[in-house]
Structure formats: C-alpha cells, structure tokens
Amino acid sequence: MKTFSITDAGIIREMNQDYYFSSDTAVGNLPNLFIVADGMGGHKAGDYASRYTIERVVAAVSRNSGDEPVSVIKEAINKANELLLADSREDEAKSGMGTTLVVGTIIGNKLFVANIGDSRLYIAGASDQIRQITRDHSLVDEMVRMGEINADEARVHPDKNIITRAVGTSDHVEADFFEVELANDDTILLCTDGLTNMVRDEEIQDTLRKNENIEEAAMQLVRMANANGGRDNITVMIIKPF
Questions:
Q1: pTM summary value
Q2: Could you read off the pLDDT of 87-127 as tens digits, one per residue?
Q3: Structural domain boundaries, residue 212
Q4: What span, in angstroms and rounded, lies between the C-alpha atoms of 144 and 159?
Q5: How far is CA 82 from the centre of its chain?
Q6: Residues 9, 28 contacting (CB under 8 angstroms)
C-alpha cells in the first residue's frame, strides 16, 4: 500500500481548517484508517472542530474491540459527535462549530467508507472514469437530485457551501456508509471541497492517471486548485491499495 497526504490553506483563507489522519498500519482492530475533515466555525473554531473530531474518532477506533468495520466507525463517529457538541456548548467561542468527515478503511479487497458533509472519496481506475463514492450532504446537491439545477450550475451556485449534515451541530449525526470492491489498478482519493470546487472531476482523473507518483499527483492537484482561485483550504489524500 502507498499513501500520501497534503493540506494547503489555499490563496484566500489565512487559516487552514482542514485536518487529516492517515495510517496504513492497524488502528485498533482496523488494519488501516484514513480520515479527512473540513471544519467550520468562527475564529479557530473550525480548525479545532476538524482536529478534535479526527482525534476522537481515532481514539474511539483504537479502543473498540469489535471487528465489524461499519459498526466500529459508526460508534467512533457518534462518540466524536457527542464530545464535540458538549465542547461547543461549554465554550461560547466554539458555539456553532462543526466539521465534515470522510472515513475509509481497506480490508482485503474491500473499501469501507463513511461520510458526513461534502468532503469526498473517489475511486479512479486506470481506464474507467473517476467515481465519486460518497454523496454530498449539501443544499445544492439536494437541488441537483431534485432536478432543480444541473451539475454545472451547482458548481457555481452561491449557496454551494451550505451543508446539511455535519459532526458537532446536533445531538444525532447520521453518516452514510458505502462498501466498494477494489480492483488492482484502483486509486483512492479523499479530499475536501477546496479541491472539488476548483478542479473538475475529469481533470482530477487525468492528473491521477498521468502521475504514477502519488506524491507528485497530490501536489499537482493542490497547485491546480490554487491556480483556479484557491478560494478554500485544500486537502488531498491519495491511496494506492495494491
């Protein structure tokens, strides 16, 4: 397994509220663990929310004695949500903070994924089109699913950054779970919307296909996002599982 991660504040934002965790070795009973989060909130609250949530998820997974990946991840997310929400209620400066979350673990040839918010996980094959595995929990994505706007209109919609689910904003948080069978030539990408709002899926696929070196591919994707405006923090995590 090969993996490389990079995060960048972008051109506009002074603070980076993205955070990530990557381990290609065991965390608790999971053989590996990959997480990306995009925090939101006032001064430093978003930065705190993403980091704290990932730390709590990792800690909960580490302590969980179960071996069913969906249950382990679900319990960890619920615990992190409970703790983050309690923290925000105790500190006025953190009120209203929250974070997106996308979590993945690879067991054999299967990828188990959980997501909340609009950070994404993609799979790109050597020849197939790139596939978005996660589903955005955002206002504009719901509008696309309802047929009110198309995908191109969604990319430039003024309400694009409004998400409908986040960790830390309500007593109950519901993650979507996905299970995918991996092929030998698959590349996995976890990222925040600082990449996907700036770089089209087909450009991401082209970059991944042309760069065998995943470190160079990740850095090039960040450069592309910044060249296109860099309006948000950018986090890119690339995994070659086989």
A1: 0.96
A2: 999 999 999 999 999 999 999 999 999 999 999 999 999 77
A3: 2-240
A4: 13
A5: 20
A6: no
